[in-house]
TrEMBL record:
SUPFAM superfamilies from the UniProt entry: Metallo-hydrolase/oxidoreductase
InterPro entries: Metallo-B-lactamas, NAPE-PLD, RibonucZ/Hydroxyglut_hydro
Segments for region (Disordered): 317-336
Pfam families: Lactamase_B_2
Signal peptide: none
Protein name (record): Metallo-beta-lactamase domain-containing protein
Domain of life: Bacteria
GO molecular function, one term: zinc ion binding
Record-level GO cellular component terms: cytoplasm
Span of domain Metallo-beta-lactamase: 90-285
Amino acid sequence: MRSRQQRILASPYYRNNQFQNLYPTAMLQANSMVSTLRRQFFGKEQRRPTKPLPSAWPGQRFHQTPPASGLRVTWLGHSTLLIEFAGITLLTDPVWAKHLSPVQGIGPQRFQTAPIALEQLPAIDLVLLSHDHYDHLDKQTIRWLARGSMPFVTALGVGEHLERWGIASSRIHELDWWEELHLAEFGLTIAAVPAQHFSGRGLKRNSTLWASWVVMSQNSRIYVGCDSGMFAGFNDIGQRYGPFELATLEMAQYDIAWPGVHMQPEEALQAAEMLQARTMLPVHWGAYCLSLHAWDEPIERLLKAAHASPISILTPQLGQPVEPSQPEHLTEWWRD
């Protein structure tokens, strides 16, 4: 078996000592930097909720009954999802941190505690990790999950972080773009697919890969998105793996200063259509402020755009389990 470093060096997406996007990404321009700094200090956007957000988790016992449709998803804020699919329970990009930073006590602060405490989680069969940014890969949460025995599926190179934090190498599966992992014990196949983003913790950039996921059972498939800018790759993924019963897509934390690596809400909706998704769950919001827009601007823009789209948009409260085929009791709760 080739070592991690050998696999990285052999990757067609690793050039000039770093991983590369499929398409060039827009760089921060000087005028964008000036505008960003001005809005940072003088902008009047409401970047955090003025009161605690509603939470609708029904409790751990609820998850003892499998979803009637075979698919149920519980959004825990930002990009952390509890997905019950084809008889197993997946946890995506698990982040319970109060602050997003390499140093405890500083950095962007969570709006409120997660709707489910780590100790209250139902049994997790599999953890999916898209990339190594602090808002997607939380050291303390990973160390807590290290107590279990579930496998971790992640992008090429990220396993080095996991091993350092206590995850045995035998539990780690690292994939390059378009590689597939067959998990016979779960009856699932997981494919790593491209995203238009970047990686890095601290000053070191792009030494590890970033990836979105296609999770396939015998009868259904879902798309679990990584942070990404809009790119033609969504069409390629849709043609190769679609249609999808559900696509989770980031549509927040965008800014004019980094247009190539995060999507505007309207672009996220377009990506769902390119993927051939029936239903979209918007993520990357509701927990942290990482940009300069109002905290609820993305969901308002997305729903406005969705009026002319065939895509069904899920808007669950934090902790509210929902089956995409039965999206009843969904409200515009952020307006309350």
